[in-house]
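Morning F.,

Quick status update on the modeling queue. The single chain you submitted on Monday has been processed. Sequence for confirmation:
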Amino acid sequence: MRYSPVLLFHICSGTLGLLSGLVAVFLRKGSRWHRLIGDVFVISMLGLGASGAYLGFMKSQVTNVLAGIFTVYLVTTAWLTARRTERQTSAFDWIAMLAIVIYGGTQMTFGLRAAQSATGALYGYRPGLYFTFGTLALLSAAGDTRMILRGLSGTQRLVRHLWRMCFSLFIASGSIFLARPHLFPMMLRKTYIILFLGFLPLLLMIFWMIRVRVTSAGRRKSTVHAGGVYSLQT
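Structure tokens below.
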């Protein structure tokens, strides 16, 4: 079986992105190796999203185009969040915010069209998929607006970085393990390992976001106690 160069690039980018992303998640945040592997993940995921959108466009697969665009958006904004100071923004942030609003509106429109269609689907997908990604996109736009207008604290920046990176990793894992389980041996499918690997990035995202919140709360409490002031707030 022959593959086009773009498809081969897409497969290699997805594989490298998935492996580097899983490694980066377990490395100490802010360490030299975390930044290095993280850069590999970002480059790989940008290649995956861009090539996926291109292949989807060439094959008239609208959902793949939208998934590729969302992946590029998540990875780019997450990477910039980690590289900037708390109050730093640029014209790119406004462009990204406006683009994701249009994207979210498009997904919601497709969801309504799917719900109203005779088959209950649009381009082969049910309304729930469109509404899910549309909601995520609009929530992302709200986060972008808040960042532009008010800036982000250290914890908020880390949470923004984490969830966007982990969700883009989920798109990669889902496109391999959840969307194409037939590529793997039946033994793996029967033991639900494929399902676990598909949702692993979301589980890791939840773990790290809870840990960041708990650690941040502990640090604030220690600071308050060190200053001789006691508070019941957590």
